[in-house]
Amino acid sequence: MDKPDRQIQPYALKEGEGWVYRYGIDFTLKASEIQNGNGAAFLQYVTRKGEEPPSHTHRTEDEMFYVLEGAVTFQCGEETFDLEKGGFIFLPAGIKHGYTIRSEESVRLIAVTAPVRDQGGPGWGGFVSDMELGQGELIAKPGQAD
């Protein structure tokens, strides 16, 4: 199975496990965005200066970030928010947003998108579903050795 079951079933993943997609950088997906029913996509990733995505707008999903390591400045509409380890931000759907990495070392982030999407759309409309539906390369899945 290449993706989590579309019927929401309980499952557990250990540290480092998940569906790893190469989409510019490597994202470890813990919960899918393309599933039936309510829910959220959950992913973890490491990135550094110069790898930030362009500013973009999600039409249908809210996005949340939790900073595990590093320093990041998020922009949402006309506002900016400086976050470091332990910081959290909620970015509502429909507002242009992005981030800039301030720290010299790598940044580790958790990202959550909700609600889940039934199907992908072009570009950053639903970036997790875009990644899952073929714009990202699936390079590992749970149970595979690294």
Q: What does this protein structure show overall?
A:
With 146 residues, the protein is mostly beta strands. It has a single domain, classed as Jelly Rolls, CATH 2.60.120. The protein contains one helix and ten strands; from the N terminus they run E-E-E-E-E-E-E-E-E-H-E. It has one helix at residues 127-135; strands at 19-23, 25-31, 41-47, 62-69, 71-76, 79-84, 88-91, 97-101, 107-114, 137-140. The strands form two sheets. A seven-stranded antiparallel β-sheet has the order 7-4-9-3-2-1-10, covered by helices on one side. A three-stranded antiparallel β-sheet has the order 6-5-8, with no helix packed on it. The chain is globular and about 40 Å long. The mean pLDDT is 86.
Radius of gyration: 15 Å
The top level CATH class name: Mainly Beta
CATH topology group: Jelly Rolls
Q: What is the chain-wise order of helices and strands? A: EEEEEEEEEHE
Helical coverage, percent range: under 10%
Q: Write down how many β-strands occur, each being a DSSP E stretch of 2 or more residues.
A: 10
Tally the structural domains.
1
Strand content: 35-45%
Average residue-wise pLDDT: 86
Unreliably modeled segments: none
Helix-strand category: mainly beta
Tell me the strand order in the biggest sheet: 7-4-9-3-2-1-10
